[in-house]
Amino acid sequence: MQQKSSCKRILTHLLAGGAALALSLTSWAADKPNVVIVATGGTIAGAGATAANSATYQAAKVPVDKLIAGVPELKDVANVRGEQVFQIASESFTNAHLLTLAKRVSALAKQADVDGIVVTHGTDTLEETSFFLNLTVHTDKPIVVVGSMRPGSAMSADGMLNLYNAVNVAAAKDAKGKGVLVSMNDDILSGRDASKMVNIKTSAFSSQWGPLGSIVEGKAYWFRAPVKRHTMNSEFDIDKIDSLPPVEIAYAYGNVGPAAHDAFAKTGAKAIINAGTGNGSVGNAMVPELQRLRTQGVIIVRASRVPDGFVLRNSEQPDDKYDWVVAHDHKPQKARLLAALALTKTSNTKELQRIFWEY
Ligand code: DAS
């Protein structure tokens, strides 16, 4: 009698286990895309002391599985799983973090069972990561970078909806081939030119060239596509890059002198992004300093501290004569990354300028 009841119990247990397994397999329904959320930290993983703390909180606290559990609607969109690559505030990102993250994203994109990738990220350097991935990951699968301006513990937190939107975009077939995307505040921006333009609002991110599309109630509406080279059409391949040459940014202002530039050159900078005034203008006192640095072999890239517009070649300065490069419409923080990648290939200034026009 004893033996019979234990067999019955084991059988019941096995049947229940089998049912759960079957359920889990069906919940990874083949008709749903597979999306991996690669988590790096930031405010979207942040937590504040009270619901009133929308700006005072600790970033990079909540693990990725809790982020996913916090948006149960994700399972209606895709088969979602999470990977915690880092748990840091993004102002602490280094080149090493960028390389590690891009290599992981590249490896995931190669997997046949991955249809789209979401990267959760702090907003402070989100634009640098989205641009770097756009330049180096060879895939046409959607890669969507997302963050939030308020921690999940705050009233009207924006992280849940931003994450829901990002997974919807990553799961959308028509998001393929558009390069790396940034999904913030219902906008779908190009990872190339998305920038954090307001540091205290949920409408923080924009591009001077406008969003590529918008996402409403989980549906992506597209209006434009990128024209600059990216992902599959990029000459930079993260799988072949293991380090980045040092490139620094020197900010210009009235009364600026060469101290910062000289210090960068002394520490081995291969290029200096000069964040000039106006259209990348260089003060009279600084022109000979930059020419001197150029003769010492440092690449000079004229960018602008002005958020929008683009630097014209040979306008404010005779770039051909000085052998300088212009950053086109790239903000200094993005020009730094493009210059570093370009310098893994060449230090020929004509080639460097071509790269700035094309990416
Ligand atoms: N410190 C900011 C960061 O991690 C918080 C955020 O906005 O995500 O980028």
Key terms for this structure?
binds D-aspartic acid; 2 domains; Rossmann fold; alpha/beta; 11 helices; globular; 33% helix; eight-stranded mixed beta sheet; 359 residues; four-stranded parallel beta sheet; 14 strands
Short structural summary:
The protein is of the alpha/beta class and 359 residues long.
Write a structural description.
- The chain has 359 residues and is an alpha/beta fold.
- The protein folds into two domains: 32-233, Rossmann fold (3-Layer(aba) Sandwich), CATH 3.40.50; 246-358, Rossmann fold (3-Layer(aba) Sandwich), CATH 3.40.50.40.
- 33% of the residues lie in helices and 18% in strands.
- The strands form three sheets. The chain has an eight-stranded mixed sheet, sandwiched between helices. It has a four-stranded parallel sheet with strand order 11-12-13-14, with helices on both faces.
- The radius of gyration is 24 Å and the shape is globular.
- Bound molecules: D-aspartic acid.
Q: Give the H and E element order.
A: HEHHEHEHEHEEEEEEEHEHEHEHH
Main sheet strand line-up = 2-1-3-4-5-6-9-10
What's the CATH architecture name of the largest domain? Answer: 3-Layer(aba) Sandwich
Query: Going by CATH, what is the homologous superfamily of the largest domain?
Result: L-asparaginase, N-terminal domain
* Structural class by SSE content: alpha/beta
Strand content is 15-25%
- pLDDT averaged over residues: 93
Number of helices, where a helix is a run of at least 4 consecutive DSSP H or I residues: 11
Radius of gyration: 24 Å
- Label the overall shape: globular
CATH topology of the largest domain, which one?
Rossmann fold
Q: What summary fits the major beta sheet?
A: 8 strands, mixed
Query: What is the rounded distance between the termini?
Result: 77 Å
Helix content: 25-40%
Bound small molecules, which ones? Answer: D-aspartic acid
Supply the number of structural domains: 2
- Which stretches are low in confidence, meaning pLDDT under 50 for 5 or more residues running? 17-27
